[in-house]
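Slide 14.
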Amino acid sequence: MKSKRYVNKIFKVLSETIKNPTTELNYSDEFTLLVAVVLSAQSTDKGVNKVTTKLFNLAKKPSDMVKLGEKKIRETIKNIGLYNSKAKNLFLLSNMLINEHEGKVPSERDALVKLPGVGRKTANVVLNTFFGKPYIAVDTHLFRLGNRIGFAKGKAPLEVENCYMETIPKWALKNAHHWLILHGRYTCKAKNPDCDHCKITKYCEFYLKEKIYD
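Slide 15: predicted structure.
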């Protein structure tokens, strides 16, 4: 595991490179964010935004979603992957929010992960993005970057998350999730990472190894 001083330098560079780190999912409040993140599983943000443009015109609150019904939800989101299970989960979690949380999205992870279709990663995204809590949601980008750069290594998402939480400086925790996602999405891509335009190559194990064997 890299030292906190070493990791601090990485996030200093990312903070200077990516000025406005935030999710690229469209939302207006905590419920629409939760819905968008649930829909984003194995789907692109661009694809989800196309679907939620239609969905949020029909339902922006848990009560609206319940009235819409699972069948109509399914028809509205059918252009993204896993739409059958996602439609069912949106209907069920909306019911649960009404019955157990007075129609409000809870701001605690233990409560969020009990909602249908909401796992630790989804909960962490909502808590970080909307509620401003210092959580790290390990998606494919963060898992890849942690292992590739070398400062949050692990074979499982939770292991990588724990490494991030131990090494990321406190000042960076709020924005770290989005800095890493955006860096992974546009620069440190899974295939053909754009090392020529990357600002943190001198801290990256992958780049330094590649350079040695050039």
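Speaker note: The mean pLDDT is 94.
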